[in-house]
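Standup notes
- DV: blocked on the single-chain target, sequence here:
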Amino acid sequence: MVGAAYSGGAYLADSTGKITLIEDLKEESIYLVEKINDNIYYNTTSNGTLMKLNLSTKEKVSLNLDQVYDTLPSPDGKQMLILQANGSKNTMLVYDLESGEKITVTEGAELNGVSWSPDQRRISYSLKEDVNNTTVSSLYVYDMLTGKSTQIAVDTQNISTSWSPSGERLAYTEWDGIQYNSSIIYFK
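- DV (later): unblocked, structure below
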């Protein structure tokens, strides 16, 4: 497990509870940090550029992705969803950790409810868009095999999503400010 410290730097914790400072990041003002295999992916509060620190070689490199505000590793640890804020537009990318290849999944005014299916075939997300001077928020599922997104719920607010272990069902909960509503979507 890895986490950022409010006072600066980042720490690793193991299953015994031992906490260790990551020496190569101790002077950094870390905002976001993720450990995947032998690499630490992080950004700082100064510019939001996503960086990679190899824990074996101690090499730090920029991934040339700015204004990153969230990352979600894939279940197999070979890819990562990257969420970027670019002014009034947010972007979600699939980033291949080995090749550096980037695929843009979507862009819109606001993204939330983002999650990978356990089989890594699908990605769910809620997207708020401005359509004809009206703000519309909808739930989508992106299919990694086809490269296409499908709208599965419209006029949604404050979405959280959760996949079944098989990846064949998606449950989502929505908070409208008064009550929670839940639904389950089945995929074939």
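- Follow-up: The chain has a mean pLDDT of 90.
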